[in-house]
Amino acid sequence: MALNEVLERRVAERTQALAAANQRLQQEIAERERAEAAVRRTEQLFRLLVQGVTDYALYMLDPNGIVTSWNTGAERIKGYTTDEILGQSFARFYTPEDAAAGEPARALKAARERGRDEHETWHVRKDGSRFWANVVIDSIYDEDGTLIGFAKITRDVTERRRTQEDLDLAREALFQSRKMEAIGQLTGGVAHDFNNILTGIIGALDLVRRRLEAGRTGEILRYVEVASTAANRAASLTARLLAFGRRQPLTVTSVDLNGIVLSMADLLRRTMGEAIEIEIGLEPDLPCAATDVNQIENAILNLAINARDAMPAGGRLTIRTEREPPGGTAEGPGFVFLTVADTGRGMDTDVREKAFEPFFTTKALGQGTGLGLSMIYGFMKQIGGNAEIASEPGAGTLVRLTLPIAAADPTPREVSRDEAAPVTSGAGETILLVEDDPDIRALAQETLREQGYRVIACEDAAGARTALRADAGIALLVTDFGLPGGTNGRALAAEARAMRPSLPIILMTGYADEAADRPDFLGPGMVLLTKPFALDTFTARVRGSLDG
Predict the structure, then answer these.
(1) Are 340 and 304 in contact (CB under 8 A)?
(2) For the range 422-427, what are the long-range contacts, defined as Cβ-Cβ under 8 Å and sequence gap of 24 or more?
(3) Residue 19 burial (C-beta neighbours within 10 Å; 0-12, 13-18, 19+)
(4) Confidence (pLDDT) at 63
(5) Torsion sign, CA atoms 233, 235, 236, 241
(6) Candidate CATH numbers 3.30.160.40, 3.40.50.2300, 3.40.225.10, 3.20.20.220; the one for domain 430-547
(7) H/E segment holding residue 547
(8) Which comes out higher in pLDDT, residue 301 or 219?
(9) Is 22 helix (H, G, I), strand (E, B) or coil?
(10) Using CA atoms, how far apart are residues 11 and 13, in angstroms rounded to an integer?
(11) How many other C-beta atoms lie within 10 A of the C-beta of residue 435?
């Protein structure tokens, strides 16, 4: 073959190859252009989507927390325009207290380590106003695994938080109304019991007076003891009623369930009346339950009232405690059971299935809210327990409460007002006594004088102010909380402290449970003394306050 032919053939082959390569290149360019156009369309759609979202603040941060993108929702929620915020640190959205606590750095660190951080807190708008924010931060990495920034989503959930708070308040109000309804149902039995107590006190004191008039003093001490015992019974009953009516949040502690049942026995007997027999069976060495003392007391009381109403002609109420049998649970410390059973009319299937529903009641209008069993059920679930009903028409009702066993020993009980400390005499110190009740004021004044104190007695805050200004030797202020004239004992204590910063103060009150709910109620060097109290307790508290 001639050289020219060979060259021509090779040129033709290369030309053909170049044409094919060019065609492939054109196809690749076209495909790339289509892909780039698709990416541009996707990016445009994404931008439109992000910018169209107004209920969420959607924006990007670089690895150091600097804002690199900003959507319309972010501008609406936070108040900054894109030009104002790009290049700024996202830390400006946090409150000064959160920023000082390092919350922005913590959030980025958590997102970097776990891939996501989600939390709720207060955020600050451009105008300085605050809103409750739900915040999600996701870390973003490139194909090499290098952190390139964060995607941050913020939503204003202030209204949701406000709604939840309103719901919580409503639930608390409903629970409190049910407690007060239960106390209302106690009034008949309590009034009867108080009348019995007062009859004992009045009768004993009347006999003391008669014996003194007749000069027969040998039997006086016995009648004084009768009156004192009756008065202590009244004090115990009042304390129990105050505990039931007390408004307070759920506080789960380690509780001796057997002790609770025993402490309520007298109150339950008064509530049930003479026609209903009460049987109590307590398992020995029962483990403590993880529960709230006031809530479980209220549950027992409500179940007892329901049982009483189911037995209008009388019957038997049985309260038992027991421990879950071994092997009853797969893990954890296990459970204890509290059962309240009656021999009343019972429930049919329809009533039994609805018994735990809120506002469901079989009682006549005005005789019940239908909240008792539903709130007991909700309380049991809240502490990790359960409530169950077994009942048949004509065969009575049994309610079993399941409570988790506590990991710790029972919470120490408060020292009773009856456990008086030894009396310690005075050494001529001057005590300012402020009490509007003339009988209590006279008793306290005479008791203090007998113990060797000098006493200045006043009936209101105005007289106490005069005494404080006139007598620099006053060593102790003892004041009742409820005083006439518009200034209560706590306000008087504050005034006295303004005059004499180191003056010890004793506040006497019959509303100590409410005072105890306020941690700031007492200042340093102030002591609360709950009425009623024994005189030995009173004088010991006085001596202790003076001795510091």
Answers:
(1) yes
(2) 422/536, 422/540, 423/451, 423/536, 423/539, 423/540, 423/543, 424/451, 424/539, 424/540, 424/543, 424/544, 425/451, 425/452, 425/543, 426/451, 426/452, 426/453, 426/542, 426/543, 426/546, 427/452
(3) exposed
(4) 94
(5) positive
(6) 3.40.50.2300
(7) helix 535-547
(8) 301
(9) helix
(10) 5
(11) 23
- Edge-to-edge strands, sheet with 474-480: 454-458, 430-434, 474-480, 505-509, 526-530
- Please list, in sequence order, all residues whose beta carbon lies within 8 angstroms of the beta carbon of residue 417, skipping any fewer than 6 positions away: 235, 239, 530, 532, 533, 534, 537
What are the Cα distances from residue 6, in Å, to 20, 120, 404?
21, 81, 98
Distances (CA, A) of 137 to 116, 117, 305: 6, 5, 53
Residue 314 pLDDT > 80: yes
**Cβ neighbours for 266, distance < 8 A, ≥ 6 positions apart:** 236, 237
The CATH H-level (homologous superfamily) assignment of domain 252-413 is Histidine kinase-like ATPase, C-terminal domain (3.30.565.10)
510 token code pair: 């019959």
CA distance 398 to 236: 30
Degrees (nearest 5) of the Cα angle 217, 223, 228?
Answer: 130
Higher pLDDT, 104 or 264: 104
Percentage of residues in the chain having pLDDT higher than 90: 32
In terms of Cβ atoms closer than 10 Å to its own Cβ (0-12, 13-18, 19+), residue 127 is exposed
pLDDT at residue 35 in the model: 65
Please give the full DSSP string across 89-105, using - where no structure is assigned: BGGGGB-HHHHHTTHHH
Please, how many CA atoms are within 13 Å of residue 31, restricted to the half-sphere of its CB? 6
Tell me how long the chain is. 548
Angstrom distance (rounded) from CA 279 to CA 296? 19
How many alpha carbons lie under 13 Å from residue 417 in its C-beta half-sphere? Answer: 23
Three state DSSP letters for 154-166: EEECHHHHHHHHH
pLDDT of residue 380: 84
Residue-wise DSSP of 416-460: PTTSPPPP----S-EEEEE-S-HHHHHHHHHHHHHTT-EEEEESS
66 pLDDT more than 90: yes
CB 74 within 8 Å of CB 55:
no
- Rounded Cα–Cα distance for residues 93 and 121 (Å): 11
The two tokens of residue 463 are 């007289």
> What class is the 53-156 domain?
alpha beta
CB atoms closer than 10 angstroms to residue 474: 20
d(CA 257, CA 321): 8
In the block, residue with structure tokens 């306020």? 518
Q: Map tokens 């809103």 to a residue.
A: 131
CA 55 vs. chain centroid, Å, equals 33
